[in-house]
Amino acid sequence: MEVTLLKMQVGGIKNIEKDIVLLFDTPNRTKTKGHGLIKAIYGPNGVGKTAIVLAADFYARLTKDETSLDDTPTMAILSQLINARRKEFFIEMSYRFVSDEKSTPVYVTHSISIGHDSFGAMRILSERVVETDRKGKQKWMLQRDADGLKGEDGAMSFLKKNQADLSKHSMVGSFPASLSFTKEDSQAFIRAWRPLFIVLTCATRLRTFYGEASDSHESFALQKLLDFIANEKSTDEAEYRATLTKWLTKRQRVLLSKHFYKDCFEVIDKEEKKSFDAAIPNLSRFLKIMKPDLEKIAPVYKSNGSNIIVDLEFHYQGGYTVSYEFESTGIKKLSRLYFALHAASKGSVAFIDEIDSDIHDVYIEKLVEYFLLNTTAQIILTTHNVGIMDSLNEYSNTIDFLTPQGHIVTWAIGGRRKPQKTYLKGYISGIPFNLSDYQFAEVFA
Questions:
Q1: Residue 365 region, left (φ>0) first, then alpha (ψ -120 to 50), else beta?
Q2: 366 Cβ partners below 8 Å, 6+ apart?
Q3: Is residue 160 over pLDDT 90?
Q4: In order of start, what are the domains of the chain with their CATH numbers?
Q5: Rounded mean pLDDT of 64-76?
């Protein structure tokens, strides 16, 4: 099974007011005949590069129904992230889905809009799923907005059976609850639900990574949740736990554990321990490339209810051992980056924010070269590392610049221009980099 993200359109989040469009691939290309799909997004600090990763994160969580607009953490974050002028968050993802080598590609586009209704409550304002052919001609459509559902009759009839509140939950994430059909309904199910199932499958393949210094704003959401519980003024432990159960999703329960175990490497479910154990030897091999004196990594587990607190011990030549808490910032970042790259190598679409922070430029350049030239992985990364531009410049749809005005400038390959020199000299439209050293004299002299 292959999932390719072809295009992402997003607006109304943080300082990205108007929609921007990121193109990743052409509809008729196949991964097996091409190269790795790497998209590097450049731009000055504070223009909204992280907002792109945040948008993909929230989209995936809402689509998969891991969270909804009736839980406190999500509401707390979205209330701060939705652009104050636009007052509506919009995102659209276009995918190419291939179930196996003999199957014809299926093209689906999913869009969702979130904002406040006339009563001031945050809700899903509209949602749309469209299946098209390779040329973009519509074959199937289902959408809902203020006027209700419209589109494929079979899909609407199934969806109306669902008891979920579609103003708070996506219809893609809600549809599994509607699958009460008989054998006689199987053809109707295939016709009515296949595009929604494909969108859900594609969203499940989206992975986002923020690194050691997370900018996902989850700590802000957690504090809002704890404040909410405190305001309940309950001293009864059973009521306290009932409140936590009501409001916390699986992801948020892990977050709560991380809040109390700040120096651990990770918090995982007990059923994830076996796969985590299996990943450790490969993590050791990965880090040993940069740290030849590393002998092995030993995980240390501590049970915490349904979760396991994971710490790592790094064993070096000469008997030297250091725990994850006291490792260098670079090794910490590389340890987390491994899991992002591993997910991409296994077919996930990985969004990686600030891939180059705390990591030597040479390591980043060699990693990008490997995934670009030797794999079919898809990675969307934000970065300030200009050293990888020369490798990316060999292919189209690999370099985008986000300007302070909220526009995307796509680098067009060809000609004698080099993206690195053009960017740093201030020749990218909207990013002049018109700084002079004497301006700092006003601050420090």
A1: alpha
A2: none
A3: no
A4: 1-212+349-445 (3.40.50.300), 261-346 (no CATH)
A5: 75
